[in-house]
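Input (structure):
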């Protein structure tokens, strides 16, 4: 059987990644695909691909973002605060925690892993939910430690691993890889070289995955 792997590049401050998280996970499960979650430094991606950070955008564009969020929240039945108390803080530590969790899951895929693939999905969703629904500062180490523990994971181990040079290099590497793949926003999925930008493009992604079923 041909392997079906989806690369998901996401910013750990992305409200749109949060809105698409459950549907991407369900899509992968339906088709026996695996998703490789790769947090990136989106401001660095923007700097190289012509993106503009939200506070610097024209008021009209900022307002339309709010309108679109409301529409999608209504359609999906998911709450998102368009202007949370701690909006888009430094996401580096949160990103490295997710990377550390993914590395642990991959290293122990055939063993009694302390972190499994579904745990990584739950973890990144919990971090996004903390920012966009729970008014928490996801740049704060204590806040992140609490989120990791609430997910039933070894907070001490993951926080330690997140601070290693290896994980820092992986984070930088994901950002470079994203730019090379043509990524310019979050979330972006790449399947067999084809880019799908945004949670509103998941239907097209599913069509592409379905077309490769054995």
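Output (sequence):
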């Amino acid at each position: 059987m041909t392997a079906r792997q989806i690369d998901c590049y996401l910013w750990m401050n992305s409200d749109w990644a949060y809105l698409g998280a459950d549907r991407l996970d369900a899509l992968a499960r339906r088709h026996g695909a695996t998703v490789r979650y790769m947090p990136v430094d989106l401001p660095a991606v923007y700097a190289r691909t012509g993106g503009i950070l939200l506070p610097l955008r024209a008021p009209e564009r900022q307002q339309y973002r709010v309108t679109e969020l409301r529409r999608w929240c209504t359609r999906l039945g998911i709450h998102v605060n368009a202007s949370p108390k701690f909006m888009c803080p430094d996401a580096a530590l949160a990103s490295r925690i997710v990377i550390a969790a993914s590395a642990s899951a991959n290293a122990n895929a055939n063993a009694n892993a302390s972190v499994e693939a579904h745990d990584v999905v739950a973890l990144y969703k919990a971090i996004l939910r903390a920012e966009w629904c729970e008014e928490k500062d996801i740049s704060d180490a204590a806040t992140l430690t609490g989120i990791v523990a609430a997910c039933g994971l070894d907070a001490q181990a993951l926080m330690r691993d997140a601070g290693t040079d290896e994980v820092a290099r992986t984070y930088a590497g994901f950002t470079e890889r994203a730019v090379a793949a043509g990524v310019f926003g979050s979330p972006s999925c790449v399947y067999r070289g084809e880019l799908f930008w945004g949670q509103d493009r998941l239907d097209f992604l599913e069509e592409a995955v379905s077309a490769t079923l054995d």
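Notes: The chain has a mean pLDDT of 93. The first strand starts at residue 5 and ends at 10.
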